[in-house]
Design goal:
Elements: H1 2-22, H2 28-35, H3 41-76, H4 88-101, H5 110-132, H6 139-163, H7 168-176, H8 184-203, H9 205-212, H10 215-220, H11 225-247, H12 253-265, H13 269-302, H14 311-329
Helix pairs in contact: 1-13, 3-8, 3-9, 3-11, 3-12, 3-13, 4-5, 4-6, 4-7, 4-11, 5-6, 5-11, 8-11, 12-13, 13-14
Length: about 325
């Protein structure tokens, strides 16, 4: 197990190094020169004020989404219960876009947008709990209500577009998910939030393991299943809201990474939760590096200097393809 964590840590370092040199404007030689104290003011600004915060935000957001997904899988006993099932992702998008349309927040103010997104995400989760409360945390009802809440919030976002069509660019940015333009303020807002709720998720590893076995076994072991599930959902909502507020709705990270973490680190959540965090960080960081390299290649092929491929588009395409492969290879499995 120690060797697996070590190998994954090395992979995270490699992905981080590739992401730093993947973007336009700086070659690997220039990056190395700046790290050794050289380079001009522009090169130092690009590396230390743009590249490094983008890298750290990508790592932290990936870890948050992966841990949130594993918590949801365990609490709801549903392998397809990604963070979107809580209504947090579309709620955060709606909050950020609505605040921008009303002039309460602007994309030049990360703090205002993050607060608006967090408020929207928590509002989406509150709506879900209000509708699913009568089921006393029943996993199936919570998942179904989550899909309905997400659809309603998505419709409200479309209505905002009708009123303020000029917000189309911001809506696409939040719906797809991107790390473009992330600065140190995003990082300073995200990492304390992720640390607190990540620690809370790890402390719930024991109750979550019992919930994975079913409510009857959990009750027989003396666990208050409804209370434990509520705390777990609160943890997942908080982690998802923080990640979405920072990078938007990255698709399939919270859905597929937990399966990979359990396959690598086992069903013991005391190991698989940290493993999921590390795996999610590697996936998002690697996808962001690949997106930047792809953007440079497409810009050269299409002769377009401003072409940018958002990381969310890449994770959505790869995640959907991987999900189709898994489903086709296990046709008898019930999801």
């Amino acid at each position: 197990m120690t060797r697996r964590f070590t190998l994954l840590t090395v992979l995270a370092v490699v992905c981080a190094a590739v992401e730093v040199v993947a973007g336009r404007g700086m070659s690997p030689g220039v990056v190395w020169d700046v790290l050794n104290g050289g380079g001009d003011a522009t090169e130092r600004h690009i590396l230390f004020q743009l590249r490094l915060p983008r890298l750290l935000v990508a790592l932290c957001a990936g870890a948050c989404l992966a841990v949130a997904g594993l918590v949801l899988h365990s609490a709801l006993r549903n392998p397809l219960a990604g963070p979107e099932v809580t209504g947090v992702t579309p709620g955060a998008v709606l909050g950020a876009v609505t605040a921008t349309a009303l002039g309460l927040a602007g994309w030049d103010s990360p703090l205002a947008v993050v607060l608006a997104a967090c408020a929207g995400g928590c509002g989406g989760a509150a709506l879900l709990w209000l509708l699913a409360g009568r089921g006393r945390g029943d996993p199936a009802q919570t998942a179904v209500h989550g899909v309905l809440v997400s659809a309603v919030l998505g419709g409200l976002t479309a209505m905002v577009l009708l009123v303020e069509p000029g917000e189309l660019g911001s809506v696409v940015q939040w719906l797809v998910g991107t790390t473009e333009g992330r600065v140190w303020q995003h990082w300073h807002l995200l990492w304390p939030w992720a640390l607190v709720w990540g620690a809370a998720a790890w402390l719930l590893a024991g109750p979550l393991t019992l919930l994975r076995c079913g409510d009857d076994i959990a009750l027989a072991a003396g666990l208050a299943a409804h209370r434990a599930r509520t705390l777990a959902l609160l943890c997942a909502v908080a982690l998802t809201a923080g990640a979405v507020a920072a990078v938007g709705a990255l698709g399939f990270v919270g859905l597929l990474v937990p399966h990979l973490a359990v396959a690598v680190f086992g069903a013991d959540l005391r190991r698989s939760l940290p493993g999921a965090a590390l795996t999610g960080a590697v996936v998002v960081c690697g996808a962001d590096a690949a997106a930047q390299l792809s953007s440079r290649l497409l810009a050269a092929v299409l002769d377009s200097g401003r072409l940018t491929l958002p990381v969310g588009a890449l994770t959505a395409c790869l995640g959907a393809a991987l999900l189709l492969v898994v489903v086709r290879r296990t046709p008898g499995r019930t999801f």
